[in-house]
Amino acid sequence: MGSKDYDSSRKPSYQHAATRSKIKILLLLVLTNALSIFLFSGSGSAFGVKFWRYAPSVHVWDSEKLMLELNTTRARLSDSQSQLSALRNQLSTANSLLETLIADTKRFDQDSNNKRTGMWAREPSEELKLAMGPHKLPLGFTPNLGSDELFPTLGQACHKFQDELEKYLDYPVGGVCFSDDIFAQRLMLKGCEPLPRRRCKPPTPAGYVEPHPYPESLWSIPADTSITWDPYTCKNYACLVDRGNHPGSYDCKDCFNLFGREKDRWMRETSELDYSIDGVLALKPKGTIRIGLDIGGGSGTFAARMSERNITIVTTSMNFDGPFNSFIASRGLISMHLSVAHRLPFFDNTLDIVHSMHVLSNWIPDVMLEFTLYDIYRVLRPGGLFWLDHFFCIGTQLNSTYVPIFERIGFKQIRWNAGRKLDRGIEMNEWYLSALLEKPIS
Protein backbone atom coordinates (compact mmCIF):
# COMPACT_ATOMS: atom_id res chain seq x y z
CA MET A 1 0.00 0.00 0.00
CA GLY A 2 1.03 3.60 -0.44
CA SER A 3 3.57 4.00 2.42
CA LYS A 4 5.26 0.61 1.92
CA ASP A 5 6.03 0.82 -1.80
CA TYR A 6 9.59 2.34 -1.41
CA ASP A 7 12.88 0.34 -1.80
CA SER A 8 14.09 -0.35 1.73
CA SER A 9 17.46 -1.41 0.46
CA ARG A 10 18.42 2.24 -0.33
CA LYS A 11 17.90 3.61 3.22
CA PRO A 12 21.52 3.12 4.50
CA SER A 13 23.01 5.13 1.63
CA TYR A 14 20.85 8.14 2.57
CA GLN A 15 21.94 7.93 6.20
CA HIS A 16 25.67 7.82 5.29
CA ALA A 17 25.29 10.87 3.05
CA ALA A 18 23.63 12.87 5.80
CA THR A 19 26.36 11.94 8.27
CA ARG A 20 29.11 13.05 5.87
CA SER A 21 27.36 16.41 5.31
CA LYS A 22 27.17 17.09 9.05
CA ILE A 23 30.89 16.28 9.48
CA LYS A 24 31.79 18.68 6.65
CA ILE A 25 29.73 21.49 8.19
CA LEU A 26 31.34 20.90 11.62
CA LEU A 27 34.86 20.95 10.15
CA LEU A 28 34.04 24.18 8.23
CA LEU A 29 32.75 25.83 11.39
CA VAL A 30 35.84 24.84 13.40
CA LEU A 31 38.16 26.01 10.61
CA THR A 32 36.34 29.36 10.33
CA ASN A 33 36.51 30.03 14.04
CA ALA A 34 40.17 29.08 14.20
CA LEU A 35 40.96 31.38 11.30
CA SER A 36 39.07 34.26 12.94
CA ILE A 37 41.01 33.83 16.17
CA PHE A 38 44.25 33.59 14.25
CA LEU A 39 43.57 36.76 12.29
CA PHE A 40 42.19 39.00 15.07
CA SER A 41 44.84 37.92 17.58
CA GLY A 42 47.50 39.63 15.44
CA SER A 43 49.12 36.47 14.06
CA GLY A 44 47.96 37.31 10.57
CA SER A 45 51.04 39.51 10.14
CA ALA A 46 52.98 36.38 9.24
CA PHE A 47 51.40 36.64 5.83
CA GLY A 48 52.21 40.39 5.53
CA VAL A 49 48.61 41.41 6.11
CA LYS A 50 48.08 43.75 9.10
CA PHE A 51 44.39 43.19 9.79
CA TRP A 52 44.46 45.15 13.07
CA ARG A 53 44.49 48.26 10.97
CA TYR A 54 40.97 47.38 9.87
CA ALA A 55 39.50 45.74 12.92
CA PRO A 56 40.21 45.74 16.63
CA SER A 57 42.46 42.95 17.76
CA VAL A 58 41.10 40.58 20.36
CA HIS A 59 43.63 38.91 22.60
CA VAL A 60 41.74 35.89 23.79
CA TRP A 61 44.78 34.70 25.75
CA ASP A 62 45.31 38.07 27.59
CA SER A 63 42.25 38.96 29.72
CA GLU A 64 43.90 42.02 31.28
CA LYS A 65 44.67 43.53 27.92
CA LEU A 66 41.16 42.70 26.74
CA MET A 67 39.62 44.45 29.73
CA LEU A 68 41.88 47.46 29.19
CA GLU A 69 40.74 47.79 25.60
CA LEU A 70 37.10 47.32 26.61
CA ASN A 71 37.46 50.07 29.19
CA THR A 72 39.16 52.30 26.63
CA THR A 73 36.34 51.67 24.18
CA ARG A 74 33.77 52.36 26.90
CA ALA A 75 35.51 55.64 27.75
CA ARG A 76 35.55 56.65 24.10
CA LEU A 77 31.84 55.83 23.82
CA SER A 78 31.12 57.86 26.93
CA ASP A 79 33.16 60.76 25.55
CA SER A 80 31.27 60.50 22.25
CA GLN A 81 27.96 60.55 24.11
CA SER A 82 29.09 63.67 26.02
CA GLN A 83 30.11 65.34 22.78
CA LEU A 84 26.75 64.37 21.24
CA SER A 85 24.91 65.80 24.24
CA ALA A 86 26.91 69.02 24.01
CA LEU A 87 26.15 69.20 20.29
CA ARG A 88 22.45 68.76 21.01
CA ASN A 89 22.62 71.63 23.54
CA GLN A 90 24.41 73.84 21.02
CA LEU A 91 21.79 73.02 18.40
CA SER A 92 19.01 73.82 20.88
CA THR A 93 20.68 77.16 21.73
CA ALA A 94 21.12 77.94 18.05
CA ASN A 95 17.43 77.17 17.42
CA SER A 96 16.40 79.47 20.29
CA LEU A 97 18.61 82.25 18.97
CA LEU A 98 17.18 81.76 15.49
CA GLU A 99 13.60 81.91 16.80
CA THR A 100 14.44 85.08 18.75
CA LEU A 101 16.01 86.61 15.66
CA ILE A 102 12.93 85.80 13.58
CA ALA A 103 10.64 87.27 16.27
CA ASP A 104 12.78 90.41 16.52
CA THR A 105 12.72 90.76 12.75
CA LYS A 106 8.92 90.52 12.74
CA ARG A 107 8.74 93.01 15.62
CA PHE A 108 11.07 95.37 13.79
CA ASP A 109 8.91 95.13 10.67
CA GLN A 110 5.80 95.76 12.78
CA ASP A 111 7.45 98.68 14.58
CA SER A 112 8.52 100.12 11.25
CA ASN A 113 4.96 99.78 9.98
CA ASN A 114 3.57 101.29 13.19
CA LYS A 115 6.05 104.12 12.97
CA ARG A 116 4.79 104.81 9.49
CA THR A 117 1.05 104.35 10.14
CA GLY A 118 0.80 104.50 13.95
CA MET A 119 -2.62 103.26 15.04
CA TRP A 120 -4.12 104.05 11.65
CA ALA A 121 -5.65 101.35 9.47
CA ARG A 122 -3.50 102.47 6.53
CA GLU A 123 -1.04 105.15 5.54
CA PRO A 124 -2.60 108.50 6.59
CA SER A 125 -3.20 111.21 4.03
CA GLU A 126 -0.56 113.93 3.76
CA GLU A 127 -2.75 116.55 5.48
CA LEU A 128 -3.51 114.14 8.34
CA LYS A 129 0.22 113.47 8.77
CA LEU A 130 0.85 117.20 9.02
CA ALA A 131 -2.08 117.70 11.39
CA MET A 132 -1.02 114.99 13.83
CA GLY A 133 2.75 115.64 13.73
CA PRO A 134 5.12 115.47 15.45
CA HIS A 135 7.06 118.52 14.26
CA LYS A 136 10.68 119.31 15.09
CA LEU A 137 11.22 122.44 17.18
CA PRO A 138 13.20 125.08 15.26
CA LEU A 139 15.46 125.72 18.27
CA GLY A 140 15.93 122.06 19.15
CA PHE A 141 15.46 120.45 22.54
CA THR A 142 13.68 122.49 25.21
CA PRO A 143 13.54 121.48 28.88
CA ASN A 144 10.02 122.91 29.13
CA LEU A 145 8.76 120.11 26.89
CA GLY A 146 11.51 117.60 27.62
CA SER A 147 11.70 117.02 23.87
CA ASP A 148 12.92 118.42 20.57
CA GLU A 149 9.55 117.93 18.86
CA LEU A 150 5.95 119.03 19.33
CA PHE A 151 2.82 116.89 19.01
CA PRO A 152 -0.49 118.57 18.14
CA THR A 153 -3.36 117.35 20.33
CA LEU A 154 -5.72 114.80 18.82
CA GLY A 155 -8.58 112.80 20.37
CA GLN A 156 -7.59 109.25 21.25
CA ALA A 157 -10.50 107.72 19.29
CA CYS A 158 -9.71 109.59 16.05
CA HIS A 159 -7.77 106.63 14.61
CA LYS A 160 -10.99 104.57 14.61
CA PHE A 161 -12.56 106.93 12.11
CA GLN A 162 -9.78 107.49 9.60
CA ASP A 163 -12.07 107.83 6.57
CA GLU A 164 -14.17 110.51 8.26
CA LEU A 165 -11.15 112.33 9.66
CA GLU A 166 -9.46 112.43 6.27
CA LYS A 167 -12.69 113.74 4.79
CA TYR A 168 -12.69 116.44 7.50
CA LEU A 169 -9.12 117.34 6.48
CA ASP A 170 -9.85 117.32 2.74
CA TYR A 171 -10.00 121.01 1.73
CA PRO A 172 -8.14 123.54 -0.38
CA VAL A 173 -5.23 124.64 1.80
CA GLY A 174 -5.59 128.36 2.46
CA GLY A 175 -9.10 128.36 1.01
CA VAL A 176 -12.57 128.19 2.56
CA CYS A 177 -13.53 125.13 4.62
CA PHE A 178 -16.52 123.15 3.47
CA SER A 179 -19.68 123.63 5.52
CA ASP A 180 -19.25 120.54 7.71
CA ASP A 181 -20.13 121.71 11.24
CA ILE A 182 -22.46 118.81 12.02
CA PHE A 183 -20.10 116.26 10.44
CA ALA A 184 -17.28 117.60 12.62
CA GLN A 185 -19.44 117.55 15.75
CA ARG A 186 -20.33 113.91 15.19
CA LEU A 187 -16.64 113.10 15.07
CA MET A 188 -16.21 114.88 18.41
CA LEU A 189 -19.08 112.96 19.98
CA LYS A 190 -17.52 109.68 18.82
CA GLY A 191 -14.42 110.49 20.88
CA CYS A 192 -12.35 112.27 18.25
CA GLU A 193 -12.05 115.29 20.52
CA PRO A 194 -10.22 117.53 20.20
CA LEU A 195 -10.32 117.53 16.44
CA PRO A 196 -7.08 118.40 14.66
CA ARG A 197 -6.46 121.94 13.51
CA ARG A 198 -7.10 122.74 9.85
CA ARG A 199 -5.50 125.03 7.27
CA CYS A 200 -8.71 126.47 5.88
CA LYS A 201 -11.05 129.33 6.79
CA PRO A 202 -14.67 128.97 7.95
CA PRO A 203 -17.29 130.44 5.63
CA THR A 204 -18.10 134.08 6.43
CA PRO A 205 -21.84 134.83 6.73
CA ALA A 206 -23.11 136.94 3.86
CA GLY A 207 -24.13 140.43 4.95
CA TYR A 208 -22.59 140.12 8.41
CA VAL A 209 -23.48 142.97 10.80
CA GLU A 210 -21.97 143.98 14.12
CA PRO A 211 -23.51 142.46 17.30
CA HIS A 212 -25.64 144.36 19.76
CA PRO A 213 -23.61 146.27 22.37
CA TYR A 214 -23.26 144.86 25.88
CA PRO A 215 -25.35 144.65 28.11
CA GLU A 216 -28.16 144.99 25.57
CA SER A 217 -26.80 141.93 23.83
CA LEU A 218 -27.61 139.73 26.83
CA TRP A 219 -31.32 139.79 25.98
CA SER A 220 -31.31 140.51 22.26
CA ILE A 221 -31.89 138.12 19.36
CA PRO A 222 -28.97 138.57 16.96
CA ALA A 223 -29.32 139.29 13.27
CA ASP A 224 -29.85 136.34 10.96
CA THR A 225 -26.78 137.38 9.00
CA SER A 226 -24.56 136.78 12.04
CA ILE A 227 -24.12 133.07 11.22
CA THR A 228 -24.13 130.55 8.37
CA TRP A 229 -27.33 128.48 8.48
CA ASP A 230 -26.30 125.57 6.22
CA PRO A 231 -25.98 122.95 9.00
CA TYR A 232 -29.40 123.56 10.63
CA THR A 233 -33.03 122.77 9.91
CA CYS A 234 -34.09 126.31 10.76
CA LYS A 235 -32.69 129.01 8.48
CA ASN A 236 -33.32 132.02 10.74
CA TYR A 237 -33.70 132.91 14.41
CA ALA A 238 -37.45 133.45 14.12
CA CYS A 239 -37.77 129.73 13.32
CA LEU A 240 -35.68 128.81 16.36
CA VAL A 241 -37.62 131.10 18.70
CA ASP A 242 -40.91 129.63 17.50
CA ARG A 243 -39.72 126.01 17.70
CA GLY A 244 -40.98 125.61 21.26
CA ASN A 245 -44.55 126.15 20.02
CA HIS A 246 -44.45 123.18 17.65
CA PRO A 247 -44.38 119.42 18.20
CA GLY A 248 -41.09 117.57 17.91
CA SER A 249 -38.15 116.65 20.08
CA TYR A 250 -35.25 119.07 20.13
CA ASP A 251 -32.41 119.68 22.51
CA CYS A 252 -33.26 122.69 24.69
CA LYS A 253 -36.38 123.23 22.59
CA ASP A 254 -37.32 126.69 23.86
CA CYS A 255 -33.84 127.99 24.75
CA PHE A 256 -33.75 130.56 21.93
CA ASN A 257 -36.91 132.28 23.13
CA LEU A 258 -35.33 134.73 25.56
CA PHE A 259 -38.70 136.12 26.58
CA GLY A 260 -40.30 132.83 27.54
CA ARG A 261 -39.07 130.51 30.29
CA GLU A 262 -35.50 131.66 29.80
CA LYS A 263 -36.36 135.09 31.19
CA ASP A 264 -37.36 133.66 34.57
CA ARG A 265 -34.78 130.86 35.01
CA TRP A 266 -32.89 130.94 38.34
CA MET A 267 -34.56 134.20 39.38
CA ARG A 268 -36.55 132.70 42.27
CA GLU A 269 -37.08 129.39 44.05
CA THR A 270 -40.32 127.90 42.77
CA SER A 271 -39.73 124.49 44.43
CA GLU A 272 -37.17 122.75 46.58
CA LEU A 273 -35.44 121.62 43.37
CA ASP A 274 -35.24 125.11 41.84
CA TYR A 275 -32.48 127.11 43.52
CA SER A 276 -32.12 130.80 42.76
CA ILE A 277 -28.86 132.47 41.79
CA ASP A 278 -29.17 135.09 44.51
CA GLY A 279 -29.93 132.42 47.10
CA VAL A 280 -26.80 130.46 46.16
CA LEU A 281 -24.56 133.54 46.08
CA ALA A 282 -25.81 134.56 49.52
CA LEU A 283 -24.18 131.43 50.99
CA LYS A 284 -20.72 132.86 50.30
CA PRO A 285 -19.08 136.14 51.32
CA LYS A 286 -20.00 138.89 48.85
CA GLY A 287 -17.66 139.11 45.88
CA THR A 288 -15.97 135.74 46.41
CA ILE A 289 -17.87 134.07 43.56
CA ARG A 290 -16.17 135.70 40.56
CA ILE A 291 -15.49 133.12 37.84
CA GLY A 292 -17.02 129.80 36.95
CA LEU A 293 -18.25 127.25 34.43
CA ASP A 294 -21.68 126.14 33.19
CA ILE A 295 -21.53 122.61 31.72
CA GLY A 296 -24.03 122.12 28.89
CA GLY A 297 -25.41 125.62 29.29
CA GLY A 298 -27.86 125.66 26.36
CA SER A 299 -28.18 129.19 25.01
CA GLY A 300 -26.18 130.78 27.83
CA THR A 301 -28.90 132.21 30.11
CA PHE A 302 -27.20 131.09 33.34
CA ALA A 303 -24.05 132.93 32.26
CA ALA A 304 -26.14 135.98 31.30
CA ARG A 305 -27.72 136.15 34.77
CA MET A 306 -24.32 135.77 36.40
CA SER A 307 -22.88 138.44 34.09
CA GLU A 308 -25.49 140.85 35.39
CA ARG A 309 -23.91 140.23 38.81
CA ASN A 310 -20.36 140.85 37.56
CA ILE A 311 -19.52 137.12 37.56
CA THR A 312 -17.80 135.65 34.50
CA ILE A 313 -19.11 132.24 33.47
CA VAL A 314 -17.72 130.11 30.62
CA THR A 315 -20.49 128.06 28.96
CA THR A 316 -19.91 124.73 27.22
CA SER A 317 -22.49 123.69 24.67
CA MET A 318 -23.01 121.50 21.61
CA ASN A 319 -24.81 122.56 18.43
CA PHE A 320 -27.64 120.00 18.30
CA ASP A 321 -29.62 121.29 15.27
CA GLY A 322 -29.15 124.86 16.42
CA PRO A 323 -26.33 127.44 16.58
CA PHE A 324 -26.01 127.35 20.38
CA ASN A 325 -22.35 128.42 20.53
CA SER A 326 -22.88 131.26 18.08
CA PHE A 327 -25.95 132.42 19.99
CA ILE A 328 -24.08 132.42 23.32
CA ALA A 329 -21.27 134.46 21.79
CA SER A 330 -23.74 136.91 20.26
CA ARG A 331 -24.99 137.64 23.78
CA GLY A 332 -21.52 138.82 24.74
CA LEU A 333 -20.71 135.64 26.66
CA ILE A 334 -17.90 133.07 26.40
CA SER A 335 -18.85 129.79 24.73
CA MET A 336 -16.79 126.62 24.40
CA HIS A 337 -17.70 123.89 21.93
CA LEU A 338 -16.94 120.92 24.20
CA SER A 339 -18.68 117.62 24.84
CA VAL A 340 -19.30 116.37 28.35
CA ALA A 341 -16.59 113.73 27.81
CA HIS A 342 -13.84 116.34 27.38
CA ARG A 343 -11.43 117.03 30.23
CA LEU A 344 -12.21 120.46 31.64
CA PRO A 345 -9.66 122.91 30.17
CA PHE A 346 -8.92 124.69 33.45
CA PHE A 347 -6.10 124.43 35.93
CA ASP A 348 -6.52 122.88 39.38
CA ASN A 349 -8.18 124.87 42.18
CA THR A 350 -9.10 127.89 40.03
CA LEU A 351 -12.90 128.21 39.65
CA ASP A 352 -15.31 129.61 42.22
CA ILE A 353 -18.40 127.82 40.93
CA VAL A 354 -19.39 125.05 38.49
CA HIS A 355 -23.03 124.63 37.43
CA SER A 356 -24.72 121.98 35.33
CA MET A 357 -28.41 121.53 34.57
CA HIS A 358 -29.88 118.35 33.04
CA VAL A 359 -26.68 117.40 31.16
CA LEU A 360 -25.10 115.39 33.98
CA SER A 361 -27.61 112.56 34.39
CA ASN A 362 -27.96 108.80 34.27
CA TRP A 363 -27.47 108.63 30.49
CA ILE A 364 -23.73 108.91 31.17
CA PRO A 365 -21.97 105.61 32.03
CA ASP A 366 -21.28 105.42 35.77
CA VAL A 367 -17.49 105.30 35.43
CA MET A 368 -17.41 108.26 33.04
CA LEU A 369 -19.71 110.21 35.33
CA GLU A 370 -17.38 109.57 38.27
CA PHE A 371 -14.38 110.78 36.26
CA THR A 372 -16.38 113.90 35.31
CA LEU A 373 -17.30 114.66 38.91
CA TYR A 374 -13.68 114.23 40.01
CA ASP A 375 -12.70 116.64 37.22
CA ILE A 376 -15.19 119.19 38.56
CA TYR A 377 -13.73 118.72 42.04
CA ARG A 378 -10.26 119.26 40.55
CA VAL A 379 -10.97 122.64 38.94
CA LEU A 380 -12.90 124.08 41.88
CA ARG A 381 -10.88 126.06 44.40
CA PRO A 382 -11.16 125.06 48.07
CA GLY A 383 -14.49 126.41 49.23
CA GLY A 384 -15.77 126.50 45.63
CA LEU A 385 -19.35 125.46 44.87
CA PHE A 386 -20.70 122.73 42.61
CA TRP A 387 -24.34 123.41 41.75
CA LEU A 388 -25.90 120.19 40.45
CA ASP A 389 -29.20 121.27 38.91
CA HIS A 390 -31.94 118.71 38.16
CA PHE A 391 -29.83 115.56 37.89
CA PHE A 392 -32.13 112.89 36.40
CA CYS A 393 -32.16 109.22 37.48
CA ILE A 394 -34.41 106.30 38.38
CA GLY A 395 -35.37 106.04 42.05
CA THR A 396 -33.49 102.78 42.59
CA GLN A 397 -30.28 104.32 41.22
CA LEU A 398 -30.14 107.29 43.55
CA ASN A 399 -29.05 105.58 46.76
CA SER A 400 -27.46 102.48 45.24
CA THR A 401 -25.30 104.16 42.58
CA TYR A 402 -25.03 107.93 42.79
CA VAL A 403 -24.94 108.67 46.52
CA PRO A 404 -21.87 106.36 46.95
CA ILE A 405 -20.12 108.15 44.06
CA PHE A 406 -20.60 111.57 45.66
CA GLU A 407 -19.45 110.21 49.01
CA ARG A 408 -16.27 108.81 47.45
CA ILE A 409 -15.41 112.15 45.88
CA GLY A 410 -15.72 113.99 49.18
CA PHE A 411 -17.91 117.03 48.52
CA LYS A 412 -19.48 118.67 51.54
CA GLN A 413 -23.28 118.87 51.27
CA ILE A 414 -24.76 122.34 51.72
CA ARG A 415 -28.12 121.53 50.13
CA TRP A 416 -29.48 118.19 48.89
CA ASN A 417 -33.02 117.84 47.51
CA ALA A 418 -34.61 114.96 45.62
CA GLY A 419 -38.08 115.00 44.07
CA ARG A 420 -40.18 112.95 41.70
CA LYS A 421 -40.45 113.75 38.00
CA LEU A 422 -44.14 113.21 37.38
CA ASP A 423 -44.79 114.28 33.79
CA ARG A 424 -44.71 110.65 32.56
CA GLY A 425 -46.52 109.17 35.57
CA ILE A 426 -45.54 108.17 39.09
CA GLU A 427 -45.17 104.52 38.07
CA MET A 428 -42.04 105.42 36.06
CA ASN A 429 -40.22 106.09 39.34
CA GLU A 430 -38.24 108.96 37.76
CA TRP A 431 -36.47 111.42 40.02
CA TYR A 432 -34.60 114.70 39.96
CA LEU A 433 -31.78 115.60 42.32
CA SER A 434 -30.66 119.17 42.95
CA ALA A 435 -27.68 119.71 45.22
CA LEU A 436 -25.29 122.43 46.30
CA LEU A 437 -21.90 120.92 47.16
CA GLU A 438 -18.76 122.53 48.47
CA LYS A 439 -15.16 121.51 47.95
CA PRO A 440 -13.66 121.26 51.44
CA ILE A 441 -11.11 123.91 52.40
CA SER A 442 -8.97 121.40 54.26
Give your account of this protein's structure.
With 442 residues, the chain is α/β, with parallel strands linked by helices. It is built from 11 helices and 9 strands. The chain has helices at 11-40, 63-117, 126-132, 162-168, 181-189, 237-242, 277-281, 301-307, 324-330, 366-379, 395-409, and strands at residues 135-136, 149-150, 291-295, 312-316, 334-336, 351-357, 380-394, 412-420, 430-438. The strands form 2 sheets. A 7-stranded mixed beta sheet has the order 5-4-3-6-7-9-8. It has a two-stranded antiparallel ribbon with strand order 1-2. Helix 10 (366-379) crosses helix 11. The longest helix has 55 residues, at 63-117. The radius of gyration is 47 Å and the shape is elongated. The N and C termini lie far apart (133 Å). 20% of the residues are buried. Residues 1-14 and 42-55 have low confidence and may be disordered. Residues 293-387 form the Methyltransferase type domain. This is S-adenosyl-L-methionine-dependent methyltransferases superfamily protein.
